[in-house]
Design goal:
single chain, alpha/beta, TIM Barrel, two-stranded antiparallel ribbon, globular
Amino acid sequence: MTHSTTVPRIQIAPQGPEFSRIVLGLWRLADWKMTPQARVDFLEQALALGVTTIDQADIYGDYQSETLLGEALKLAPSLRQQFQFVSKCGIKLVSAARPAHGLQHYDTSRAHIIASAENSLRAMQIEQLDVLLIHRPDPLMDADEMAEAFRHLQDTGKVKHFGVSNFTPSQFELLASRFPLVTNQVELSLLHLPPLHDGTLDLCQKLRIAPMIWSALGGGNLLRESTTASPQILRVRQVLDVLSKELDLPASTIALAWVLQHPSRPLVLTGSGRIEALHDAVLACQQTLNREQWFSLWCASAGKGVD
């Protein structure tokens, strides 16, 4: 069967940017051991599939991933205008790349947010971030101070929009009460269901804000063959295998379609350097499961039927 490979673009918030629903996640870019030209080729292949949004973070690849992307963008400057760039800050890792860090911890101070955003721009060799996310909730976060940092970065043209990652609904509402947020990047997959039921996606839908989803394939565990797979993984795989034959689609495509079908209009991050994996993710945008198919996967994950 021949399937279409076009990625829809959506406005992710009422006053937010327009992103592709499949997002090129580059958190493992340093592990892929690509030459600068190979990185350029990969970015061009992603664009050909309609994937126009890139997800990064300052800490990815032990603070190297943004620099590796910047090397590719320097080699092919025209790519800068064809992608939207997302990055994150707020975690300080103990690393040779950051010798001043003595303990891994969170830092959402005004000074750190501004410095991190400026470092990301320099590393990626771009002039502006489309969205900057706070990577993790900080128990010491001061919403007013964070809003000041956001306003400074916006007023100086360095960041267009702001969001968060891994925030609970109440944490999201606190920061959003001080400054408009355009997304919450959270974990959701057939192996991780809490955002469906803890109010996270309810709040996104209420505010008409599209969440960004990381680890949508359960960190690869949905697809990785293992003799020690959990009962949950085995149950889900069994249903995926049935649906894969029924729909003539890769199991990964079906698993991503399951996530994309949520009415909050999620964007899904990829995590592979293989263009074939990106192609399978793009296919998910054209698939709609019927309710029995969708709930068969939910029930397999939950290990029970609905009440």
